Amino acid sequence: MKRTYGLELTNNSKVSWAFSLPRSKTCIDATEICKKLCYGRGIRYQSQAQKDKRERNYRTVELLLKNGGPELLAQNLVHLIDSARPRDWLTSKLMKTKPDVPWTLRIHDVGDFYSTDYSRAWQIAVCERPECDFWFYTRSFQTPAVYKSLGELASLPNCQGWLSVDADNLSQGLLALCNQPAARWKLAILQSKDLQLEHLQDAIPEIGKANIINFPYHHGGRNIAAFNQQVVTSCPAIVGDLKLTNDPHTSRPCQLCSYCLPG
Ligand code: SF4
Predict the structure, then answer these.
(1) Rounded to whole angstroms, how far apart are CA atoms 132 and 117?
(2) I need a labelling partner for 23 at 20 to 30 A (CA). Which of 62, 111, 115, 199 fits?
(3) How many angstroms separate the alpha carbon of residue 234 from the centre of ligand 1?
(4) Shortest-distance Cα residue to atom 8 of ligand 1
(5) Among 122, 110, 127, 102, which residue's Cα sits nearest to residue 47?
(6) In terms of Cα–Cα distance, which of 134, 195, 179 is closest to 159?
(7) Distances (CA, A) of 72 to 47, 53, 60, 78, 118
(8) Ligand 1 within 6 A of CB of 256
């Protein structure tokens, strides 16, 4: 029998632990390009079990927010975050050694921040677990109240926020970046054939190369030719040697690379 409620993480061969929500209900500022190219449309995200999990997560989030606000949801998110701790976390602390894998969580491998209460719940939960490293990409910067709230989440020392831009929302993304100078936002580019390096060239020195990551569009193991690496860094899991792995006790590409993580 299908379960109606319950929060659950996904263990992803690139990022390790991640939380997902349905795109149709939560990607409030999705662009036409990301709707068309989103890797959440890919086959491994479209199994019935994956779809059910995302819907169940969303229903549960809504139920908790309705009955106890961001604080109640945050309590439940903390349980979820704790379930992502490496198996040797406590012993490695006692022995003063490194755990097998770092304790990390990507907020959303599918889905996005869709309300201020939902964003606030993550803010509380992230504060409660300062030893876990969080990161997220968002296009929800065109909804001012949500973006304001996300600025607080992105300002936490153990959470890195990335504004996701493509050819459709590049100027809005750059404006949003200027509007929150105090927050620690960085810029994530979806490089599709519609976006040329010239569109970014003025902005790159302003933002700083280290604060930008480029994701050349890829599909079926092939990617479009990445922008010049001297000018902008492209994700090594797409253009480099970092291999995906399903072993939960081995660091995943994002944990090895750590470019997008806080710090
Ligand atoms: S740049 Fe590194 S951390 Fe960021 S998505 Fe690619 S592999 Fe992961």
Answers:
(1) 22
(2) 199
(3) 9
(4) 254
(5) 110
(6) 134
(7) 30, 20, 11, 10, 11
(8) no
Structure tokens at 121: 């719940």
Element (H, E) at 119: helix 116-128
Cβ–Cβ under 8 Å, residues 129 and 157: no
Using most ligand atoms within 8 A of CB, pick from 190, 218, 259 the residue to mutate for ligand 1: 259
**ipTM surpasses 0.90:** yes
Q: Of all helices (H) and strands (E), which one includes residue 173?
A: helix 170-179
Q: What is the 240 CA–ligand 1 centroid distance (Å)? A: 11
For residue 237, the ligand 1 atom closest to its alpha carbon is 7
Written as six digits, the tokens of 157 are 């020392």
Indicate the domain borders of the chain.
9-257
Give yes or no for residue 242 CB within 6 A of ligand 1.
yes
